[in-house]
């Protein structure tokens, strides 16, 4: 295995590296399915976690991004991005194996151990992520960023969908038939996630690395460079405000569905699978648009759709008929999958695109650190706000009252978490003002892109409906004439 960086990669080495990065993404997604999201919340609840502890689990992924400062310090002295990344990623996956084994064999099954393991997991994962971003940036051709990462995300989401369904059915089966073995199943999930992650590290080690010369200036001066870059600073403002806005509400969707709506874990996971499925179906489309137009225009197209989904959550649970609430949940998860695939892809690409090549790790790390601060504060503040709104309701209804008939229709019913969803949607919409002043090379106005997409959609509809029918007019007329001839023939005696 070659650990020495190369001045330039051959076409064959680049191709192999791209394959290894893709395979590593699949193992990483499997790890995520087994040890995060709704599954992690379920594990924490089974161990008796409080709402505050669940909030901490939600904050760890972003809070630990501050550890990327360590990545900068190390890579300045030892610019071996591949070696450092692999070591950090390997160390991040060991705690999952450890906590899984303790839950299996040990007597201590407290949530404190889970919190510690997850914190260490995200801490080292954040360090490795910073090195990974800089490493991969020099391998993937800039012109194909959208297409490649769109393909990678699509395959990762396919893995997410298939594995999440399996995880959901296993939880349902064990909970219904062997409820006393449920924690044992969770232990297997955590240990298996760590093992798959280690295998992914070995796969990633086969990718090649190019040489990089990092600035040797004072660390504080280096960290201030992205802040002095006016355009990148504008991007930081948008990233920070957007992350704060959406994380004010999104970490509590699972809690809302489990505690307020009383849904089963299986149904919650199936809803997340629906989101991933529609994300898979549209990620390639967003990637092509990103390469053809600009990342900024993609965000302007997809962000309002996501904001509408946030707003739609305030209507969940207000209907008396259960199937209406379930239908609304399914619709929200479908549209969320479509919109987030475009947002996440464009946010990743625009950050890589605006970061100078020499100090890419510095710029990306500062971006991730600032974003993590806003993202970590959001669920903490959101939890405090939810406590404030706990015993407060806002109801707007439509009533019809007559001597023989009475009907009340709930237009808006805000309570508990719903207040957060409304506030988050408003702040998210406001954050787009910061994106408007960011400049991107090759930028295309989102108004123009929207107009082009509308024109294409109308043209396709016209071709399929009108022109397609015209193409069959001859056959239709011929059939009518033949039918009339048969009707005009005299009856046979």
TrEMBL record:
The keyword Transmembrane helix applies. Keywords: Membrane, Transmembrane, Transmembrane helix. It comes from Sphingobacterium litopenaei. The keyword Acetylation does not apply. It holds the Pfam family MFS_1. The chain crosses the membrane at residues 21-48, 54-76, 83-105, 111-135, 155-174, 186-204, 235-258, 264-286, 298-320, 326-347, 368-390. It comes from the Bacteria. This is MFS transporter. PANTHER family: INTEGRAL MEMBRANE TRANSPORT PROTEIN-RELATED, MAJOR FACILITATOR SUPERFAMILY (MFS) PROFILE DOMAIN-CONTAINING PROTEIN.
